[in-house]
Amino acid sequence: MDLVFRARRVVTPQGEIACDVGVVDGRVVAVEARIDSPNVVHLADDEVLLPGLVDTHVHVNDPGRSEWEGFGTATRAAAAGGVTTIIDMPLNSIPPTVGAEALEIKREAAADVSVDVGFWGGIVPGNLADLEPLHEAGVFGFKCFLLHSGVDEFPAVTTDELEAALRQLATLDALTIVHAEDAHTVRESEPDYAGFLASRPREAENKAISDVVALTRKTGARTHILHLSSSDALSILEAAKRESLPITAETCPHYLTFSAEEIRDGQTEFKCCPPIREAENREALWQGLRDGVVDLVVSDHSPSTVELKQGDFATAWGGISSLQLGLPAVWTGARERGFQLTDVVRWMATHPARQAGLESKGAVEVGKDADLVVFAPDETFVVDREKLHHRNPVTPYHGRALHGVVRQTWLRGRETGQAQGKLLRRGEA
Ligand SMILES: [Zn+2]
């Protein structure tokens, strides 16, 4: 063995156990009661060994808007937050990842990363011919918007255009991930939070999700609903799953943590699309996780510069930064509601890895990469935005007390800081 981790608590697919985890060449080769080795990492009594998290929803914005975030800062933040794999969204960078050439430009921008990085491609009007080359070049699937994306170089598709893309992607068995808000239901926002919330009502999500369910049924393509906020749509998704349609859904730490009632006018660090809704809606999303209707929890880390994030709710950039904070934020809410670390690992590591087809990620198990997190679940800390590795120190979590401290993150058997991340292609990781 190159290395053995010894812990009283290890979260494995069989539940939480006391054991040793043996590593050779960056892979887990044994999970046993006792492994003899001169190189043992002993976890303290208050520490738990988790698999590295897989965050499939990260906007790195590099190249083109690297003043918003960059591969160096984003992947250092990921490592500090216990995230060992990210998959980068195809928009907000320039060029957007809507063709194989743009993917190569991305990969060059990501030459120096602290965790493993994969890429989503994009579906925009007129790029049908680019989808298969992008798929062959190794993107993990394809993202599209059903309303204005926030940046002009990544336009939305109509449902007819989405249907044409799904027909083609079904033949490749590729996954399509959808920003599901209906363009005709969303209205112009007012400057205050109540006006912003009313401009992007639950009905906009419900309508768009119903449309995606109908297209999934019609085309047979695999689809996924990004950043679910409207709890009304849980029943639509539950029915689709009962029908065995190949559809999954995610929600995000901010929808599980905050509520509309606590957001004051001018607190634009809380602005995201779809919006954070009422406390009652938040509790229904937790129930959706409990029932298995919501499959995964990922950050939707979508930063901008401090300047763009200021102003009022009509004009400020819509996006929340939380890549480094997702694990403690979700664990804090989960433990209050009686969930276990095994639940959090399922939502934030195992299911995202499975959804993206990352076979060597997402669990502490023989054959997987030795991506491991030493986590102290009972220790608390107060979030200080100045101490985050994100490029811009804006986050609604600032000042909030959270449970759970990431003490060490290991990537393929090396502690991050000394480890170098890899650029991943679909089917190779
Ligand atoms: Zn996003």
From TrEMBL:
GO terms for biological process: allantoin catabolic process; purine nucleobase catabolic process. The keyword Cell cycle does not apply. Residues 48-414 form the Amidohydrolase-related domain. It is an enzyme of class 3 (hydrolase). GO terms for molecular function: allantoinase activity; cobalt ion binding; zinc ion binding. Pathway: Nitrogen metabolism; (S)-allantoin degradation; allantoate from (S)-allantoin: step 1/1. Its EC number is 3.5.2.5. Pfam families: Amidohydro_1. Keywords: Hydrolase, Metal-binding, Purine metabolism, Zinc. Its cofactor is Zn(2+). Coiled coil: none annotated. GO terms for cellular component: cytoplasm. InterPro entries: Allantoinase (IPR017593), Amidohydro-rel (IPR006680), DHOase/Allantoinase_Hydrolase (IPR050138), Metal-dep_hydrolase_composite (IPR011059), Metal_Hydrolase (IPR032466). It comes from the Bacteria. Homotetramer. Belongs to the metallo-dependent hydrolases superfamily. Allantoinase family. PANTHER family: ALLANTOINASE. This is allantoinase.
